[in-house]
Design goal:
The structure holds two protein chains of two kinds. Helices cover about 0% and strands about 60% of the residues of chain A. By secondary structure, chain A is mainly beta. In chain A, a hairpin with a 4-residue loop joins strand 7 and strand 8. Chain B is an all-beta fold. Chain B is built from no helices and eleven strands. In chain B, strands 2, 4, 5, 6, 9, 10 and 11 form a seven-stranded mixed β-sheet that branches. In chain B, strands 1-3-8-7 form a four-stranded antiparallel β-sheet, with no helix packed on it. Classes of the chains: A mainly beta, B mainly beta. Chains A and B meet through strand 5, strand 9 and strand 10 of A and strand 5 and strand 10 of B.
Amino acid sequence: GQSLEQPSEVTAVEGAIVQINCTYQTSGFYGLSWYQQHDGGAPTFLSYNGLDGLEETGRFSSFLSRSDSYGYLLLQELQMKDSASYFCAVRDPLPSGTYKYIFGTGTRLKVLA
Amino acid sequence: DVKVTQSSRYLVKRTGEKVFLECVQDMDHENMFWYRQDPGLGLRLIYFSYDVKMKEKGDIPEGYSVSREKKERFSLILESASTNQTSMYLCASSPQGAHSYEQYFGPGTRLTVT
């Protein structure tokens, strides 16, 4: 089957660094995305890795290793507003030439003062 | 700013009713998606569309159908609502091409079937 595994919950203190891991097992792969979702809100796009390596966007970085079927989201200088759920998602190519997206079950991040 | 809107934030329907969930995007995106979100299960793809009048099944299409008559509008239809379809429904859109990996989500419709 196809699956993306993430830890269900992570807790850290304000100002710290936290890493949220994602391992995937899918029939196809065309990139790994990360989304943030606050309680009651819609998921919003954070970052994308199409190739191996690190992508940095401000306090957030994302890493991908295709050979290990593994990626992570790194959040630095944590702030209270970072308390949210974080989802990884794989873009899976289809024979028709289109893509579908498979999401992980999400990691709930709690930032403590 | 990309905007994806959904017709209702909250909806309560009775078992057996036909339910229509509407989604409209204003960025001329080719791709549109319907997901349902349940605690502990993440987002699961129901149906998606890459062009007007075109649709493809996602991972959990049973009990649902869709319609895309215009590029900006993608409707999800529950033919005969059942209690196990109580969920949060999220619509999303994305462009074709290099940035197709970036999906824009609507605020969601929380559907309760009683």
